[in-house]
Amino acid sequence: MDKTKQNMFHFYVGIKTTNGLSVKLLFILHSPTKINLHVIIVMAIQAFHGSACCFHSHLLHSSSSTTASPSFLASRRFQPCSSKGKILKLNCSSSGNNGDQDYLLDAPVSVGDGFSFSGGKYSDGPSPSDEWFKQGKMVKAYSIPGTGEKAKDPIFGLVMGSGSQATGDRFRWFCVESGSADNPPVILIHGFPSQAYSYRKVLPVLSKDYHAIAFDWLGFGFSDKPQPKYGFDYTLDEYVSSLKSLIDELAVTKVSLVVQGYFSPVIVKYASTHQEKLSNLILLNPPLTAQHAKLPPTLSIFSNFLLGEIFSQDPLRASDKALTSCGPYKMKEEDAMVYRRPYLTSGSSGFALNAISRNMKKDLKRYVEDMHSVLKDKNWKVQTTICWGQRDRWLSYDGVEDFCKDSNHKLIEVPMVNML
């Protein structure tokens, strides 16, 4: 790596394939605050696989390119290099009237599945992710605070593209509904680090008797992923407040809530001050005991200094590995691509995952203790059911049965299922 002038770094990465093709990549970084080697490697792979869209928030152009508009650079696609020694440049260039300000541009939404770290296919047809998105809609809820300052990439300190900036006065939540709006409402809430897609097979079943709604939390799936410190910091307290805003938007009458895993304490915190709003509460493998008050290594690694920033940008580790490590079952490739999609489309997903993990690691114990107290309190009037898949590798069953007996809550045991 050479530092040729103040605040500019550039270096070469060589790639040699099994068929003897050699490619030399030149990377130029303007004003980096940190050098994330893993991100650079990912960008190198993306540059080599020219049929994939450019890596999410960077401009990729050949050495022969002349000055071009940001929109041209962001939309351009590349073919794999056919000649040895050809140089590609990755350049975070200026945009707008301020020539001294560096910008990152969000990549356009890719056609098909895009680039997969786990054998995904290139496709010109609709992907499972596209089909899932068509089933939902965006619901605006929870006011956006802040000073209006432009959000910046936490790794390089560059201003994010327009797609990563907050627009309007409220955040957008991706919601999928099924069933008549005249039926009793049931809101299905995914766990950490999942998506509403995990309820895709439950929605049509519930639609016969209920108005079922599944949503992506802020920072997950297709919902907004604001940069930390620019309107949303992904604290558990913020999730409680934002949940209230969303439920008020979705349901005017009493509602039943179903929640998975590590977001259960957030829901109980909300419910503790809004019991009049709830008909039923169903907790799927919630963290109930002192043993549960800590993230498993597969998730806590996203909170680590440096490693957390690296791994949260890895679509395979952030989606496939994080989700499949909780139980003995494998995920179909077409389903895995839906969970990977946010991490392939924008670096904001990884930044959000990193922030959520740190806050979850910091506050989970306090929230689990509060949930434990609330559910055992004599003033708790909400009918509560705890469903437990006994093949959960993250949360031990020890103490769960005793807790349900002491708190007089119904327990449903599912012996051959992992984290529900």
UniProtKB/TrEMBL annotation:
One Pfam family cited in the UniProt record for this chain: Abhydrolase_1
Keywords: Hydrolase
GO terms assigned for molecular function: epoxide hydrolase activity
Gene3D superfamilies in alphabetical order: alpha/beta hydrolase
Domain AB hydrolase-1 span(s) in chain numbering: 184-296
Protein name as it appears in the record: DhmA
Species, as recorded: Mucuna pruriens (Velvet bean)
Gene name linked to the record: dhmA
